[in-house]
Structure formats: structure tokens, C-alpha cells
């Protein structure tokens, strides 16, 4: 338990050992936390719970510190089990406690837990008086599930945002001004790139709506990671940037290789990009964390993706990354493809078509080399990178002029 504001407590769980999340879909190099909050006013309100494996300790701590029978209501901002997973065990102890959630949340919890609990369905603008404080609900569908909402604590100027504005990042500290800023922002960016990206338009619309409510915000407390108390609006400003087809003017070269030929091509193309003053990062998709790869793609204006040809197709690590990229629906990014081959050579065209279907603009013909590249062929790869770099600069410089 930790008091984050007067009468408002963090009562979550810090998971130092967590390394994978969403099954095996998301890497959590710095662990994570499941942030639950309890407001001890004239009425006691619990906002969200913790992930199912930690339900017993969570409920026992609530009982020891506050008394379960004193909890008047529960708010579930989002029913995914890392937030609502302790409900079944908790409601065995206090079965009739009202649960405030969206309409979609009540429907989804019935499917998750197979219980018809005391659901109190709310929509944007609905509120509950606790005494000194009032809870005001703001629906946020598809950020990042259909049931998601945020809870604003009026009187405390506190936004309990659930998944938006969070990070998979655990620390002995609680607030953004107490932790390494580079780590914090990387994890926030990684979270956005891998989870929130498909909903960019909804993010911008929701931020506009929240701003129109003119709610004073002194603190933003998400459901994972660090709480924003020092200039909390900075993370909202970042979300506005990230939702606006964000890039840093760089290029990421993704490749996988069997015997090194495609790697040689990738490194030569990177030299060409650097010759034109375009920052380039070279990533072997078989040896790099897939979520960190996506974060680099998110930061890039363009990607060049390559693979050796195997069985008339692409190597499996490249196929997996391309599938993730397709689902994230990146906008206003450009691409090209390349690869080495022995006798059939289909991989560059397969990659090109995959990228086109994923929404990338293909700005250069694919490049393929038979067997191991010669010195002359590597010079061609350098020239290929230079040409791609010139096109990136032609795209980025006008954007920078507009922003200036």
C-alpha cells in the first residue's frame, strides 16, 4: 500500500519476474506492475484489481488494511484479466458489491467469469459521489479493448487512465520524477507502438474529448507502470505526437539470413543510408526481440526488409515480424525489400507485397542477389541505400518545414 494522494492509495502488485505478457506476445524486460487503487472516502471505492495469479495476496491485503466489508463499490475500467482477474476471488468474500463498468464491460465480464454480478453500467459523464471526492467516468472504447474506460477523481484532479499512458515497467519508486527518464519514455513508447498504434485516430479523438471537458489534471495513474505526477500532461502530449503517424526520420533495415549473404546486403545498404545522412539501424529479426523491433519500425519513416529465399518463401523470423507489422496498421511509412537466393529468389517480391498490403508505400524496386554478393554487387547495395536515403530526405524535410 502506498498513498499517492490524500485518502487515495496504490494497492497493486509489482511483478519483478515478469518477462513475457499477453501470452508470449509482449516482452517485459523491466517487469511490470498491476496498479489497483483504493479511495478511502466516506465511501470506499476500489478501482481495478490485479492479475489472477496474485489474487489471494491482493484480497488478503485489502482485508487487513481496509476491511473487505467496508468496500462500497468496485470500478472496473477494463475487464482484461491483468486488471479484473481478482474479481472472482474478491466477490466470493463480498458478493453483492456493485461493479461500475461500461455496458460492453458487463457483457465481456459475463463471458470471462461466467458470473452475473451486480453490474452498474455507466457512460461518459456519469458519476458517483464518495464524499470529499466524486468519480466521473469517461468511456474510451478500443483504447485498447471495446470495454475500456477511464475514471476521473474529481476533487483530487486525478485521472485513473487504465491502459492508456501506461508502461510495462516496474520500479521501487512510484512517480515519473523518481525514475530514469530514458527508461520510462522508452517503455511508454514501446507500449504505444506495440499495443495502441492501430487506434491512432481514436486516441486523437479521445484526447480532444477529454480536453473539451476542461478537467484539471494533477496526476495520471495508469494500470501498469509509473504514475505521472510531474507535469502529467506531458504523456498526453506524447500520445498526441505518437498518434499522428509518428517517426524520427530514420530507417530500420530488417533482415534474416541463412549463410550471411543477406546480412552483407543489409550492412551495405546501411552504409548507403549513412552516406546520405539518414540514421539507419540494422536488425537481424532472428536475434532481436520482436517488440523492440516493432518499436524501431514505429520510430522510422521507412524500412527496408530482406530475407534469404527458403522453400520459395521467406525465413520464419521475417514472416513473423511482417505479420505483426500488418496487424498494427502503420500509416505514412515507406518501404523496400531485398534478399539473396540460390535458385528461385521469390523472397523480395513476397516481402514487398506483404509490406504493400500492410499500408507501406513501396518507393523502390526490390533488390535480389544470387548466392554470395561480389564486391561490385555490394557497391550496388550501397547505391541502393543511398537512393532510398535520398527519397527519405525528400519526404522528411518538407514535414519538418511544416512542423517548424
UniProtKB/TrEMBL annotation:
Q: Which family does it belong to?
A: In the N-terminal section; belongs to the zinc metallo-hydrolase group 3 family.
Q: Which organism is it from?
A: Desulforamulus profundi
What InterPro entries does the record point to? Flavodoxin/NO_synth, Flavoprotein-like_sf, Metallo-B-lactamas, ODP_dom, RibonucZ/Hydroxyglut_hydro, Rubredoxin-O_OxRdtase
Domain Flavodoxin-like span(s) in chain numbering: 251-389
Q: What is this protein called?
A: Metallo-beta-lactamase
PROSITE patterns, per database record:
FLAVODOXIN_LIKE
Pfam short name (any one): Flavodoxin_1
Q: Name one GO molecular function term.
A: electron transfer activity
Amino acid at each position: 500500500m502506498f498513498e499517492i494522494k490524500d485518502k487515495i492509495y496504490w494497492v497493486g502488485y509489482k511483478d519483478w519476474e515478469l518477462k513475457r505478457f499477453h501470452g508470449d506476445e509482449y516482452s517485459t524486460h523491466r517487469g511490470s506492475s498491476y496498479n489497483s487503487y483504493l479511495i478511502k472516502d466516506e465511501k470506499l471505492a476500489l478501482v481495478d484489481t490485479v492479475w489472477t495469479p496474485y489474487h489471494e495476496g491482493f484480497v488478503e491485503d485489502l482485508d487487513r488494511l481496509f476491511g473487505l466489508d467496508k468496500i462500497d463499490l468496485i470500478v472496473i475500467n477494463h475487464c482484461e484479466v491483468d486488471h479484473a482477474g481478482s474479481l472472482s476471488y474478491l466477490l466470493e468474500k463480498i458478493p453483492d458489491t456493485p461493479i461500475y463498468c461500461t455496458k460492453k464491460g458487463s457483457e465481456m465480464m459475463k463471458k470471462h467469469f461466467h458470473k452475473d454480478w451486480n453490474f452498474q453500467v455507466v457512460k461518459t459523464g456519469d458519476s458517483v459521489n464518495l464524499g470529499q471526492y466524486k468519480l466521473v467516468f469517461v468511456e474510451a472504447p478500443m483504447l485498447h479493448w471495446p470495454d475500456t474506460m477511464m475514471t476521473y477523481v474529481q476533487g483530487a484532479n486525478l485521472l485513473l487512465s487504465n491502459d492508456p499512458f501506461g508502461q510495462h515497467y516496474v520500479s521501487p519508486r512510484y512517480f515519473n520524477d523518481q525514475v530514469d527518464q530514458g527508461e520510462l519514455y522508452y517503455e511508454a513508447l514501446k507500449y504505444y507502438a506495440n499495443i495502441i498504434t492501430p487506434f491512432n485516430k481514436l486516441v486523437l479523438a479521445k484526447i480532444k474529448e477529454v480536453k473539451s471537458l476542461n478537467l484539471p489534471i494533477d496526476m495520471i495513474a495508469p494500470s501498469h507502470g509509473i504514475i505521472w505526477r510531474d507535469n502529467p500532461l506531458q504523456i498526453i502530449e506524447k500520445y498526441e505526437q505518437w498518434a499522428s503517424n509518428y517517426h524520427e526520420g530514420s530507417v530500420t533495415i530488417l533482415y534474416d539470413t541463412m549463410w550471411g549473404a543477406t546480412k552483407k546486403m543489409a550492412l551495405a545498404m546501411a552504409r548507403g543510408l549513412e552516406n546520405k545522412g539518414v540514421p539507419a539501424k540494422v536488425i537481424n529479426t532472428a536475434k532481436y526481440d520482436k517488440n523492440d523491433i516493432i518499436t524501431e519500425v514505429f520510430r522510422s519513416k521507412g524500412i527496408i526488409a530482406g530475407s534469404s529465399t527458403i522453400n520459395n518463401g521467406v525465413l520464419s523470423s521475417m514472416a513473423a515480424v511482417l505479420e505483426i507489422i500488418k496487424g498494427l496498421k502503420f500509416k505514412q511509412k515507406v518501404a523496400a525489400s531485398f534478399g539473396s537466393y540460390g535458385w528461385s529468389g521469390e523472397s523480395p517480391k513476397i516481402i514487398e507485397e506483404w509490406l504493400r498490403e500492410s499500408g507501406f508505400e513501396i518507393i523502390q524496386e526490390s533488390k535480389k542477389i544470387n548466392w554470395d554478393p561480389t564486391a561490385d554487387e555490394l557497391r550496388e547495395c550501397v547505391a541502393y541505400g543511398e537512393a532510398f536515403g535520398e527519397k527519405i530526405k525528400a519526404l522528411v524535410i518538407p514535414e519538418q518545414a511544416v512542423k517548424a
